[in-house]
Amino acid sequence: MRQRAQKALSQGHPLFTPLVESSPKDEEVDKLERSVSLLQATLESTADGLLVTDCSGKIVTYNRKLVQMWRIPEAVMASREFDQAEAFVLEQLKDPGSCVRKVKELFAQPEAESFDLLEFKDGRSFERYSQPQRVGQAIVGRVWSFRDVTARVQAEEALLKYKFIADSARDCMTLIDRNYVYEGANAAYCQAHGKARTEIVGTSVADVWGEDTFEKITKGYLDRCFAGETVEFEGWFEFGELGRGCFHVFYYPYFDAQGQVAYAAVVSHDITKRKRAEEALRESEEKYRQLMETANDAILIAEVDTGIVIDANHKAQELLGLPREKIIGMHQSQMHPPDEAEKYRDLFREHCKIRGALAGDIFVVDSSGRHIPVEISSGVFEVRGKSLIYGIFRDLTEHRRAAEALRQSEEKYRMLVSQIPAVVYKGYTDWSLECFDRKIEEITGYTQEEFNSGQKTWRDLIFPEDIDQAKQLFEEAQKSDSSYVTEHRIRKKNGEVRWIQARNRIICNAAGEVDYISGVLFDITERKELADQLVKAQRMEAVGILAGGLAHDFNNLLTAIMGYGEIMLLDLRKEDPFSIYISEILKAAGHGASLTNQLLAFSRKQILQPQVVNLNDVVIDMEKMLRRLIGEDIDLVTRIDQELGLVKADPGQMEQIIMNLAINARDALPQGGRLTLETANVYLDQDYARSHVGVIPGPYVMLAMSDNGLGMDGETLSHIFEPFFTTKESGKGTGLGLATVYGIVKQSGGSIWVYSEPGNGTTFKVYFPRFEEGVWEQKPKAAGPPAMGGNETVLLVEDDATLRDLMSTALRRYGYKILEASHGGEALLICEREKAPIHLLLTDVVMPQISGSDLAERLSRLRPEMKVLFMSGYTHDATVHHGLLDSGVNFIAKPFRLLNLVQKVREVLDAPEEKRLH
Q: What is the pTM for the complete model shown?
């Protein structure tokens, strides 16, 4: 049995292990087991959490309540390691540091006892008790007891809040039990009686108010309240040192849990001021009523001590827009503007102090909030020992109406000046300015004060080379109507150059001398820039028209040269010396055709065959070729927008743009550098369109090319897109590269802008309208070697005799039957006369009398089976709209090689029937 007890004690409750080691008799062991069992039951049944540790801090035992309260995992408690349990405890506390310090302090002082309060992050509160565990006289550990007092603490806090609210109230509040004893009283009640709370709480009502007052008044009200009735009344009371006061009193029954009235809650509202005002009003009524009501001015009377208005005549009611009952009871400062209340309180105190008449102009506020100017006369007088102050208010509205009208007129003038998008100023012959608003700061960067004080003059800003013109205009204006306009440049504070237009009128004094110059300044920089852009665009358009006309005529000459050269080559053997000469002639003609195409591109007269394309595809396809083109010493960086929109453009011309821009950038990087090619979706808004001629607001796809090369100055930029303009040495370039880019962009409906500064590189930005209507699918062309000859009949219409003879010779050479016409009318006659089928109409687009497209449309009615092949090097025809070839139209561009023409004829004849041009 002894062994069983020892095992139970050692395994179940180590707290009592030391007692077992004394090993008395077996009956003593049984007794000990019963004691341990009793203690264990007590440990587990207590409402407190208990913890026992040895002197080293190791956990000896604990009850289940402790684990529940601290929410510590069972595995942690089973380890008996105090540090592990403590970690879970500290994580929950608001102030873990204080807890740790207290634990260390107690372990350092084994005999010490302790009590403190632990506050949790989740709002709980525990009381913590600790005392040493003794076995005999020896201290073997420490017992910790934890009690959850959250509800009590919260109740105490709530009680403190309600007590604070009660003590903050201006009304007197008390709680009286059924024995007529004060259970509680707020600060206002104690203050009213001039007693401390301890002198009231716990004493009877009779002791505080006196036996006589209690029996005659208070007891009856309390008995009605204890019977369950809410009681209300008004009365005057004496409050010792505070004197006599009038209160509106409420008695409320307070019911306990059983529904019985346990207390009477008494609330007393001080209405002394109101009652005194009513009494003062009655006192003054008889003496002053007639005088006040017959006065032409507003009269108000107030108490000197309180400033409360106690009377007002009819004129005062009209002035304030309030009935008499609303005015009485107001503080005198309430009649005046709220933001000046303190000012009028001081003025009132000053009037009361000197106790004499004072006069001055002030403002009162009527019921609508309108500020009314008044002239006031006031003075202090006595009525039955009470000091009162009167105020006589004369409305100055009419008197000030003229002044107000003048002020409004000046305000309107100032508003007008502030809304004008210009600087209104007065100028003087010494170039100083007096500015009327702060817009001068936006235009110049200097403050209004700097100009008005003379620290800055207009001469400090204006370009020196523009001064003489301004002086000349000033002198000429003096001889005429005194008005003049100048346009000149200034340099802002930040160094920026702006264009200014000044509209001036010279104002002279009575002696005819210049007094000042009245004027307005406008910043016209944007207008100047737009005008410059427009002039450049018009100049480019004029050059383009000239270039396009020349290219059209030159194309016909080149076609003839190239055609006859080809025919001659066909009749010569390869070893013939003349074949070499003719080949060189054809090569030179090919170069001429290339120049012609560039001129046509610039003049927007070339024929484009647009598709819906993604510029990213064009950039990616050209990237390898561009790297070879620009060289290894230039780093090519591409940045493409993966969500890039589509554009409607000729893919070949897009490649031409990229290549020409890359070549231009390469020439600007003689020592190598970086070239960046970028695509992006952009939206050009109204502000951008206003400063860029020809741009329509909307969504665009941007193609940008930037280099960090030499850059360009303003003069070079002004000519950058002109044909044959180049900064290279003679023979190093044609000057058509950027002109070609310009023409392609414009003809494709886009716009191009260049940004550059010497030494800071150059950026070209090209914007094409974003295409939102879907994707075109190009029909694949049949593969295989091109066919040549045939025996079909071709109606050839060409107004140039040389070209007509050339093409006839070439086509007949390949077996075709040719019907020739020099213009559209002749072609119509041939079709009417010829009875045999005509398989193909080969016609020039631009011809006299009837254009090629009109001719094809008319002949389609006569010979619907006849196919059509257009040829031209120009765009002035319905077949091509703004240089864009209509879908389904067969076309060959001049100049062309005769073999290409023969192949194209065969291709059209062999093609399946498609949509006709009509």
A: 0.35
